[in-house]
Structures are given as structure tokens and as C-alpha cells.
Automatic annotation (TrEMBL):
CC per GO annotation: cytoskeleton
Protein family according to the UniProt entry: Belongs to the aldolase class II family.
Name of the molecule in the record: Class II aldolase/adducin N-terminal domain-containing protein
Occurrences of domain Class II aldolase/adducin N-terminal (ranges): 29-210
Membrane spanning stretches: none
Length: 262
């Protein structure tokens, strides 16, 4: 299901003097932690699916997982640095082709998308396979995403060229969460922590909705005014909650899988 990007030619040189080494190192650790916890929670699919983050201080470079490694194998140092032309600037290996064509175009075309997390996590993807709106505003967790989602109805097969990557990037608009019909989901955010927090709670919201739908009973939808009010309440503390959420993930992993930081 995955395709390796062709061997990059004439990669640029990443000089340590160009960047704040501590900031970049922290970004690597944060992103690696997300991979590990997503793997633990079954939010991965073999060696497919990708998380990426724009390198702090360099809007023309991004961190992404290398082709051939499962989420549970990712470490901070294993992440690649790529430019938008398909060159690996730092790291061993190459990105998976769809990782490059989706993530490079999203980061290039959607400036606010510093983090882009794409998965086929089972519950959210199951909702993306149904006709009609994927999320129903019937659960409190789902209200975190009220007014923040869009649905990409135009499934275009594997993203193996810039044209499909540009189409996906354009579909995002002002949304933070994209349900890619017949495919999966994409979460974008201004930080690794925010993208992780949204990804985690999106799958939880999808899981409980799927369970409720399985009963065959009618879902009790929250009225629009209350949904909007609750969303606003949640968003007031979302950024700090996301930061603390990721810190808790890193503490757990530091005890149980400390190699993620290497």
C-alpha cells in the first residue's frame, strides 16, 4: 500500500548554525512521542500514515517519518528533514511518496499548518466511509470540533503527484480537521501538541459515535446554540490543555519507552 519516494538528488545542506538546535531537538522529541503513543493506541496502519512538522525557524523544511518504519519504531533522531522539492536534507532513508506529496504541499500551501497528522485510524476512518456528515454533534467530545471540520468528498486515489497534494491542501480551507472520504483523516495545527490533542480526541469522539450508532437507536443531537457555546468553552483552554496532554504522554513514554527520545 505504501510507495517509497524516489532517491532524492542533490540534497541541500542543513547547517546547525542556521537553527536553534535545542528548539529543533524538542520538536523531534515531541513528534516522536506522538508516533509512539499513536502506535500504542492503534491509531496507525502498518508502515503507512504520517505525521509532519515544519522545522522551527525554517518554513521551507519539515520533519516527517521515514518510509519502512512503524510508528512504534520511531525515535527523535530517526525523523527525516525534507524540503518541498523531495530532497532529504537530514536523516537516513526517504519519505513514503504519499507522505511527501500530501505533507509537503499542505505545509507549503497552508501557512498555519505547522503540524499535519494524517492517519487511517479505524473509528474516524469508518465515519469517513459513510454517506453524509461524518461527525454528529451528539457527544461532548465531538463538540471540540464543532465548526472546525470539513469533508473532502473527492477521493482521488493515492497522492503520488503534486496535483493531488495541492488538491488536498486546497480542500482544508479554514478547517483544522479534514475527513477525507474513502480514505482517512488529516489534522492540522499550529503546534505538535495541538495536532496531537485533536487527533486523539477525534478518534475518541468517532469511537463513541460508532458505538452509539451500533445500537440502532436514534442519536440525541445537541442543539446548535448549545453546541456552539460548548465549543467556545472548550477552545478557551484548548492550547494549554493540549500542551499538558503531550507532556503527560512524554512522561509515560519516558518511563516505559525511553528510547523514543534517542
Amino acid at each position: 500500500m505504501a510507495h517509497a519516494l524516489g532517491a532524492p538528488a542533490a540534497p541541500a545542506i542543513l547547517r546547525n548554525t542556521e537553527l536553534d538546535a535545542d528548539t529543533v531537538r524538542q520538536a523531534r522529541v515531541d513528534l516522536a512521542a506522538c508516533f509512539r503513543m499513536a502506535g500504542r493506541l492503534g491509531m496507525h496502519e502498518g508502515i503507512c500514515n504520517h505525521f509532519s512538522f515544519v522545522v522551527p525557524g525554517r518554513d521551507d523544511l519539515f520533519l516527517v517519518n521515514p518510509y519502512g518504519w512503524a510508528f512504534s519504531e520511531i525515535t527523535a533522531s530517526r525523523l527525516l528533514v525534507c524540503d518541498f522539492n523531495g530532497h532529504v536534507v537530514a536523516g537516513d532513508g526517504v519519505p513514503e511518496a504519499t507522505a511527501f506529496f500530501i505533507h509537503a504541499r499542505v505545509h507549503k500551501n497552508v501557512g498555519r499548518a505547522k503540524a499535519a497528522f494524517h492517519t487511517h485510524m479505524p473509528n474516524a476512518t469508518a465515519l469517513a466511509m459513510l454517506e453524509g456528515p461524518p461527525l454528529v454533534w451528539a457527544g461532548q467530545t465531538a463538540l471540540k470540533f464543532y465548526g472546525r471540520t470539513m469533508v473532502d468528498e473527492e477521493y482521488g486515489g493515492l497522492a503520488l503527484d503534486e496535483q493531488e497534494g495541492d488538491r488536498i491542501a486546497a480542500s482544508i480551507g479554514d478547517a483544522d480537521i479534514v475527513f477525507m472520504k474513502n480514505h482517512g483523516v488529516m489534522v492540522v495545527g499550529g503546534s505538535v501538541a495541538e495536532a496531537w490533542d485533536d487527533l486523539y480526541y477525534l478518534e475518541r469522539a468517532a469511537e463513541v459515535q460508532r458505538m452509539a450508532m451500533a445500537t440502532g437507536r436514534t442519536l440525541k443531537v445537541v442543539p446548535e446554540a448549545m453546541a456552539a457555546r460548548t465549543y467556545a468553552q472548550m477552545r478557551e483552554g484548548d492550547r494549554e490543555s493540549a500542551r499538558l496532554h503531550l507532556e503527560s504522554v512524554k512522561r509515560i513514554l519516558a518511563r516505559e519507552e525511553p528510547d523514543f527520545m534517542h
